[in-house]
Amino acid sequence: PPTEVPEPTEVPTEEPPAGPPDLTGETITLYHFGDLSGPYAAITSPLIHGAEDAVQALNDAGGIYGAMIELQFADDASNIDEAVGIYDRFTGEDENTLLMITYGSGEAEALAPRFAEDKIVNLTAGLSAEAFYGEGSGYTFGLGPIYPDQLGYVMEFLVENWETYKPAEAGDDLKLAYLSWPTAFGQGGLTDESRAYLEELGVEIVAEDTYDVSPTADTTTAILNAQVAGANVIWTNTLAFGPAALLNDLNALGLRDQFVVAGDNWAMDLATYAFLADPAFGVGLIAPFPYLWWTDVDNPGVQYAQALFEANQREPGEHNVGYLLLVTAIDMVQKAITHAIDTVGYENLT
Fold first, then answer.
1. Where is this region: Disordered (predicted)?
2. Mean pLDDT within 48-70
3. DSSP H helices in the chain
4. Secondary structure class of 177 (helix, strand, coil)
5. What is the distance between the alpha carbons of residues 121 and 174, in angstroms, rounded to a whole number?
6. Three-state secondary structure along 108-138?
7. By Cβ atoms counted within 10 A, which residue in 143, 262, 287, 316 is the most buried?
């Protein structure tokens, strides 16, 4: 049956404000939490810094009608129980919590029903179909397309261009090995819908295997199992050291030319290169790219992000997708809150 959509928040019937209010002295608090001490710590840091720098710039420019934006962060170490506890603490301290930003699929999935129940908008980098569309959800929105859509899009691309990309000794059919982390994020590409779509495309999933969420993970067994199963395409729903571990081991085994290697949007990032044994190992990696990049220097948004990055003297390793997307996210939040104030008035924000 279709997912039940939560009842929308009632919009006050008062007349909209006559003009921009003066909110000088007011504070609008945004909450965010993610992993700064667990396996994703190095990956989360640029996201947080992007949010912090963008909020500081917004405040320096006068905030939202004079109201200052305050960011409150908590480290959940990729522990779901800890994330739930942080959510309870934040909402207990602020009875009118407007918005939270989350960074992981596990947190987004676990808290999606709570966000809906409490009518709190969740903007997330965890692009989980379950978090967006699962039962009881409805208040979770992402910074990119969900992982099943990404998997389907890339497989459709490969089917249509197989003659160009297929390994030299591969047959006419795509045989997929899904090698990924055993986490909500890692398994996020495989749903009933994406499996059905792959079948419709004629893509056979011949192997599913996992490897450790660690920079030192050994993916040899998963790769050899994929080879035995006859796979000619590998999909990994990982990032940074996740794709790097596969590419390093494929090259060490002398098997790189037997597989097309593809991954989610986060896989195509500078963070991956930090963990490659040789930068050349990244050549040929295929991933969806649903946003502009730092090299799009003529774009005003990219110019703005670059200016923030330089002004705050961030490390070169943070010049990646996470920082860029959180600058974008704060811009989107600012526009959404401004629109809400213009529509119902600051005093009616919930």
1. 1-23
2. 98
3. 41-60, 80-93, 105-118, 129-133, 147-160, 162-165, 192-201, 220-228, 241-252, 270-273, 300-311, 321-344
4. strand
5. 40
6. HHHHHHHHHHHCCEEEECCCCHHHHHCCCCC
7. 262
Q: What are the distances in angstroms from CA 133 to CA 127, 137, 141, 146, 269?
A: 11, 6, 10, 10, 27
Distance CA 3, CA 123 (A): 20
Amino acid identity at 12: P
- What DSSP state is assigned to residue 254? T
Checking if the pLDDT of 215 tops 60, the result is: yes
Q: Are 173 and 235 in contact (CB under 8 A)?
A: no
Q: Which domains does the chain have, with CATH numbers?
A: 27-144+294-348 (3.40.50.2300), 147-282 (3.40.50.2300)
CA angle, residues 140, 308, 315, in degrees to nearest 5: 95
Please give the angle made by the CA atoms of 261, 262 and 267, to the nearest 5 degrees: 120
For residue range 99-123, what is the model confidence (pLDDT) as tens digits? Answer: 999 999 999 999 999 999 999 999 9
